[in-house]
Amino acid sequence: MKTGTFDATPFFSPLSVWVREWTEVCKARLTLLVLMTTWAGFYLGARGSVDLVLLFHTMIGTALVAAGASAFNQFLERDSDALMKRTADRPLPSGRLNADEVMLFACVTSIAGMCWLGFAVNLPAATFAALTLVLYVFVYTPMKKTSSLNTLVGAVPGALPPVIGWAAASGGLSAEAWYLFAILFLWQMPHFLAIAWLYREDYARAGFRMLTLDDPDGRITSRQAFAYAVALLPVSLFPAMYLMVRSLFFPGALALGLGYAWLAWGFIAARTR
């Protein structure tokens, strides 16, 4: 307490620290991207007026499952995270949070999210949310230690959120939902490969079997990134071809896709950080 003023720092600091730590456990930025793509799938799957109450329940349930999956991932990789510079300061490897409480949080939020979707939305949405969780936590996460194909496998749960949104809005699936899945799947690959290249020493130190481990000059990694970026071009135009979106989508998707491919080509031309 200062003379004539009230210093609120002692009261608010513990709360802000608590929020910051658990926000990191939930990977808030990643969860936000998951919600954005879920919303896109819901909006397109609604085919007309959007049920805002149903959308609200879809967002809450999906956010809980995504947060739980991220917490599971950090619990399982806490020892590996401690070996990497970019993750050593996370709440678990740094010792700021206890592993048991993170595990409990992961279980509670994941189950709550799937139940929320199952009871407040529909069974197909809950099923695909559960599939996303299982693939991310129990397949992709351990596979990072055994095979460089983990990147491909990890792109599958990363591409399922728009499918969850579509199922939530429509009560089922159609070919259009899988177009959205394909777009997000292909978009992730250059992104993942770029991260693997940027942090290749970190991944090697932690024992993760990334493609860059056997590709020290980046030749294979950069070519694969470019190939996926090129493959994304025609696939990203499917929504316009099948009249899922308005005409402005086509030139926008084409311009952004070409820009993405150009940047991937830059990776081939100059394999630097």
Automatic annotation (TrEMBL):
Q: What metabolic or biological pathway is this protein involved in?
A: Porphyrin-containing compound metabolism; heme O biosynthesis; heme O from protoheme: step 1/1
Q: Where are the transmembrane segments?
A: 30-46, 52-76, 125-142, 149-171, 177-199, 225-242, 248-270
Q: Where in the cell is it found?
A: Cell membrane; Membrane
Q: Which UniProt keywords apply?
A: Cell membrane, Heme biosynthesis, Membrane, Transferase, Transmembrane, Transmembrane helix
Q: Is Cell membrane a UniProt keyword of this protein?
A: yes
Q: Which top-level enzyme class is recorded in the Swiss-Prot or TrEMBL entry?
A: transferase
Task: Note the InterPro entries from the entry.
Answer: Protohaem_IX_farnesylTrfase (IPR006369), UbiA_prenyltransferase (IPR000537), UbiA_sf (IPR044878)
Task: Give the reactions, separated by semicolons, that this protein catalyses.
Answer: heme b + (2E,6E)-farnesyl diphosphate + H2O = Fe(II)-heme o + diphosphate
Please give, as recorded in its UniProt entry, the membrane topology of this protein: Multi-pass membrane protein
Q: Which GO terms describe its molecular function?
A: protoheme IX farnesyltransferase activity
This entry's Enzyme Commission designation comes to: 2.5.1.141
Which Pfam families does this entry report, sorted A to Z? UbiA (PF01040)
Q: Which family does it belong to?
A: Belongs to the UbiA prenyltransferase family. Protoheme IX farnesyltransferase subfamily.
UniProt-listed NCBIfam families: cyoE_ctaB
Additional remark text: Carbon 2 of the heme B porphyrin ring is defined according to the Fischer nomenclature.
Entry function: Converts heme B (protoheme IX) to heme O by substitution of the vinyl group on carbon 2 of heme B porphyrin ring with a hydroxyethyl farnesyl side group.
Q: What is this protein called?
A: Protoheme IX farnesyltransferase
Which organism is this entry from?
Geitlerinema calcuttense NRMC-F 0142
Q: Which gene encodes it?
A: cyoE
